[in-house]
């Protein structure tokens, strides 16, 4: 995972959202997911929290750029 350089304009092509009521569990889920996706370039992570008298919800939103799996290059055929 690579972060964009400071001052650079980075674009994202994917978003992944993690949410739950246990902050530690959400953090672990993000860590596991990032470890399983080493090709992505993380652009930004936003953490939001919503609290009521009864519960708390934590949401971590990842904005990232995922390069294509393969580039298809046409091959010239001989006639």
Task: Supply the key terms.
3 strands, three-stranded antiparallel sheet, 1 helix, 18% helix, 35% strand, 79 residues, alpha+beta
Strand order of the largest sheet: 1-3-2
The main β sheet shows up as: 3 strands, antiparallel
Secondary structure tally: strands? 3
Unreliable stretches: none
* Beta-strand content bin: 35-45%
| SSE-based structural type | alpha+beta
Radius of gyration: 18 Å
Number of helices: 1
Q: Element order, helices and strands?
A: EHEE
Average pLDDT reading? 86
Work out the helicity level: 10-25%
Write a brief structural summary.
By secondary structure, this protein is α+β, with helices and mostly antiparallel strands. Helices cover 18% and strands 35% of the residues.
Describe this entry's structure for a reader.
This protein has a domain at 22-48. Helix content is 18%, strand content 35%. It has one helix at 23-36, and strands at residues 14-20, 41-51, 56-65. The protein has a three-stranded antiparallel sheet with strand order 1-3-2, covered by helices on one side. The N and C termini lie far apart (45 Å). The mean pLDDT is 86.
Topology:
Layout: E1 14-20, H1 23-36, E2 41-51, E3 56-65
Antiparallel strand pairs: 1-3, 2-3
